[in-house]
What does this fold into?
Amino acid sequence: MFASSAICLALFGAFFQACSGVPIGGGVVPCGLPQCQPCVTCRDPPMGAWTEWTQWSQCAQAYGAFSQTRRRTCSSTQCPGGDGEQARACTPPQEPPQWSQWGAWGQCSVTCGTGVCTRQRTCMSQCSSCPCQGPAIEQKPCQQQPCSCWTQWSAWSQCSITCGLGGFRSRTRQCTCAQLPKS
It folds into this structure.
């Protein structure tokens, strides 16, 4: 086998060798023994077949655009029908929306009596139609001092004199404020 035949065999899996009886260098050919000059004629390689496409890759950003690819392999040096790689545009998967940390509790909603304290958190989502699960506002009761520590006034007493000027009447009320437990 000649070196060029070996190359043809390695590349394409088959070769044809054709020799002519042309003497090399004008030498004398012994009777019945042709002198051959190496030559190689390779046939076209066999038509290969494609493997199945791989799964689409994950959506990734390259050069500012998001795309994904898939590949297939040819069993020979040539296969019919296209390339071994395809690409398509894709939309990156959205991260599930997450809540921020709760903010600090606000002031009590009233200055006396029972009210509420409120705190908030923010939904952090890249998708306007992907709401966070759960409430954005949380409330708890808060207790302030009573709005009034005084009881209602009692009825007026009788006048201190029965006739003339200078008498007086009185009425009373009680202070019921006690130290409230802190909320």
